[in-house]
Amino acid sequence: LLLEPEGGANCPASAVKSAGLDFACVPFVKLFDTSGSSTYTYLLGDPASKDAILIDPVLEMVERDLAVADDLALKLKYVLNTHCHADHITGTGAIKADIYLLPGEKVCFGERYVEVRATPGHTDGCVTYVSQDNGGMAFTGDALLIRGCGRTDFQQGSPETLFDSVHSQIFSLPETFRVYPAHDYKGRHHSTVLEEKTLNPRLTKTKEEFKSIMDNLGLPYPKKIDAAVPANMVCGIQD
């Protein structure tokens, strides 16, 4: 669990008081799934209203996520997914159902918001949530990972579509914006738009080279896809 006030190192530690949780900066908590999927879940709050959103919760970690929000005196207003996950069942159904969003919409919580950007290609329903807080943040799901990207060989995936999505909707953001993916398997917490535009070994290639790479990954069939996808198509709501 990492709690990062808005402004990063420029925001003094005294801005977050341990007693009473009087936030002078934006509460931003990064949570990691220890049940097996290596998913990052993100909790963002508005310091004035205490309204908050939760991005990409995992079913097995819901009690932990709710406890963290409660500890920080945050009230969950919306629970969001970046896409229909294949490696875990979302926790949104156990908390509250998703809302359907369109590209360009803003999800508001207090005086804060995230903008919805359509970034299909890993699946045909992927979105990226963009926040102007904390110097700029992009919650990219599996569309853009740190030095990688999500696979494109199931759920209506398309390497050409993913390439166009990342370049037009994420790489077009200011280069200082931080990138927060849904997964990382090497313990890294975030990247930046500039880093990925410069160093991503797949997405710095031409579209034709990228398609060849993605078409020849030879990845195994996801272990939980047969259970996860049908459940996630109904927001993880359990009977």
Account of the protein in words:
With 239 residues, the protein is α+β, with helices and mostly antiparallel strands. It has a six-stranded mixed β-sheet with strand order 6-7-8-9-10-11. The chain is 21% helix and 21% strand. The radius of gyration is 17 Å and the shape is globular. The two termini are 31 Å apart. The chain contains six helices and eleven strands. A hairpin with a 5-residue loop joins β3 and β4 (51-55). α3 crosses α5. The longest helix is centred in the last third of the chain and has 12 residues, at 159-170.
How is this fold's topology laid out?
Elements: E1 2-3, E2 28-32, E3 40-45, E4 51-55, H1 62-71, E5 75-80, H2 92-95, E6 106-109, E7 112-118, E8 127-131, E9 137-141, H3 159-170, E10 178-181, E11 191-192, H4 193-199, H5 207-215, H6 225-232
Parallel strand pairs: 4-5, 9-10
Antiparallel strand pairs: 1-2, 2-3, 3-4, 6-7, 7-8, 8-9, 10-11
Helix pairs in contact: 3-5
> Percent helix among the residues?
10-25%
Largest sheet: 6 strands, mixed
Radius of gyration: 17 Å
Number of helices: 6
Number of strands: 11
Poorly predicted regions are: 5-23, 226-234
Distance between the termini: 31 Å
Query: What are the secondary-structure elements, in order, as H or E?
Result: EEEEHEHEEEEHEEHHH
Query: Structural class, please?
Result: alpha+beta
Overall 3D shape: globular
Q: Could you tell me the strand content as a percent range?
A: 15-25%
Instruction: Summarize model confidence as the mean pLDDT.
Output: 81
